[in-house]
Amino acid sequence: APVQLWASELGGEGVFLRDIAPLDATLSGPHEFHVVRNAGHFAFFLCSPLLAQAVPDICADRSGFDRAAFHKEFNASVIAFLRDKLGTARN
Questions:
Q1: 91 residues of the chain, pLDDT tens digit each
Q2: Pair 8, 34: CB distance under 8 Å
């Protein structure tokens, strides 16, 4: 099965790049491995204002990391990958 694996460079909450990178080496089939530079584990969450107020640590990013820009790139990459691998037409 096609796999697109994503990891944050900085990790956090028990999920670290050093733990994910070996998975890249053990995947036998064709796959993509993306490391999001300067990102922590929770960068993959979209934070609403309510979530940011309730759990600010999850929504705080390191200086220089743009979560909104990352999600635009991330979402586009995942959609393109799925369309390519599943052969779906663009709508």
A1: 889 999 999 988 878 888 888 988 899 888 999 999 999 999 999 999 999 999 999 999 999 999 999 999 999 999 999 999 988 655 5
A2: no
Amino acid at 24: D
Please tell me whether the overall predicted TM-score, pTM, comes out greater than 0.85 for this model.
Answer: no
Q: Indicate the residue type of 61.
A: D
Half-sphere exposure of 14 (CA within 13 A, CB side): 0
Give the C-alpha separation, 9 to 87, whole Å. Answer: 31
Is residue 78 a contact partner of residue 4, using CB atoms and an 8 Å limit? yes
H or E segment and range at residue 30 = none
Which residues, listed in sequence order, are joined to residue 3 by a DSSP beta bridge?
31
CA-based nearest residue to 39, from 68, 9, 18: 9
Q: And the tokens for 60?
A: 């705080």
